[in-house]
TrEMBL record:
Record protein name field: DsbA family protein
Domain Thioredoxin: 25-221
Taxonomic source organism: Falsiruegeria litorea
Coiled coil: none
InterPro entries: Thioredoxin-like_fold (IPR012336), Thioredoxin-like_sf (IPR036249), Thioredoxin_domain (IPR013766)
Database matches in SUPFAM superfamilies: Thioredoxin-like
Domain of life (superkingdom): Bacteria
PROSITE patterns, sorted: THIOREDOXIN_2
Role summary: May be required for disulfide bond formation in some proteins.
Protein family: Belongs to the thioredoxin family. DsbA subfamily.
Length: 222
C-alpha cells in the first residue's frame, strides 16, 4: 500500500468515528461503518464494482485519462478552463474518449468523490463541476463537520436527496473499494501527482490547452 493509501485508510477510520455523519444519529452508525470499511483485506477487495466515469464516444480514436483530486487547486483550474475547451473541441466531437479517475490524497477528496458518485454516471460530471467550482469554499469551510456539510449542499444543488447523500457518505465498504481501485490504477499508470494524464497509453503532463491540442492533433494524425 502506498503512503497515500495508508493515509486514506486512516482517514476512513477517522471518518467512521463520527465525521461521515455530523447529525445527531452519527454516533449510532459509526461503529458499523468501521466494521464495513475494514471487513476485507485490501487484497480481497473486488474493485470491478467501481464504475469508470466516461465522456465521449466509446470508439473515439484517442483515449484520455485524467487522474485528479477534488482538493487539488491545479485540478480545479484545469476543469474551469482547459477541460471545457477540450470537451467542446475533442470530447463532444467524438475525437476523445475521456475517462476521469479520482485520486485520494486526503479524506476530504474521498468524501467529495463519494458525493460525486452518489447520483451515478448520469450526474457525475455535473456534480464534479460543482465540486471543483466551489473548491475554495467547501475545502476551507472549517473542520471535517463543516466540510462534509458543504459537500452535502453541493449534492443537494445537483438534485440528490438527503437520504441518498447520507447513504453514500456512510458506505464504508464503497470507500474502502474506491481506495483500492485508486491505488491499483495509480500504481499501474505511475501516478504520483495531480492532475496527471494518460493519452493513448502515454503519460502527459498538465499543460495549456494549446499544448494539449498539439498532442491530441498529433495523435489524430497518426
Amino acid at each position: 500500500m502506498s503512503r497515500f493509501g495508508t493515509a486514506i485508510c486512516a482517514a476512513v477510520a477517522i471518518a467512521a468515528g463520527g465525521y461521515w455523519l455530523t447529525q445527531s444519529q452519527s454516533t449510532q452508525t459509526s461503529a458499523p461503518l468501521i466494521g464495513a470499511a475494514f471487513a476485507q483485506d485490501a487484497g480481497d477487495i473486488d474493485t470491478s464494482t467501481i464504475i469508470e466515469m466516461v465522456q465521449g464516444a466509446e470508439d473515439a480514436p484517442i483515449e484520455m485519462i485524467e487522474y485528479a483530486s477534488y482538493t487539488c487547486p491545479h485540478c480545479a483550474t484545469f476543469h474551469e478552463g482547459t477541460y471545457k475547451e477540450l470537451k467542446k473541441d475533442y470530447i463532444d466531437t467524438g475525437k476523445v474518449k475521456f475517462i476521469f479517475r479520482e485520486v485520494y490524497f486526503d479524506r476530504y477528496g474521498l468524501w467529495a468523490s463519494m458525493v460525486a458518485r452518489c447520483g451515478g454516471p448520469e450526474k457525475f460530471f455535473g456534480v464534479s463541476d460543482l465540486i471543483f467550482k466551489g473548491q475554495s469554499d467547501w475545502a476551507r469551510a472549517g473542520g471535517p463537520a463543516e466540510i462534509v456539510d458543504e459537500l452535502r449542499k453541493i449534492g443537494r444543488i445537483a438534485g440528490l436527496d438527503n437520504d441518498a447523500l447520507e447513504a453514500c457518505l456512510q458506505d464504508g465498504t464503497k470507500a474502502q473499494t474506491l481506495i483500492k481501485w485508486y491505488e491499483d490504477n495509480a500504481k499501474a499508470d505511475g501516478v504520483e501527482s495531480t492532475p496527471s494524464f494518460i493519452i493513448n497509453g502515454k503519460s502527459v503532463s498538465n499543460q495549456s490547452y494549446a499544448d494539449f491540442k498539439k498532442v491530441l492533433d498529433a495523435e489524430l494524425a497518426n
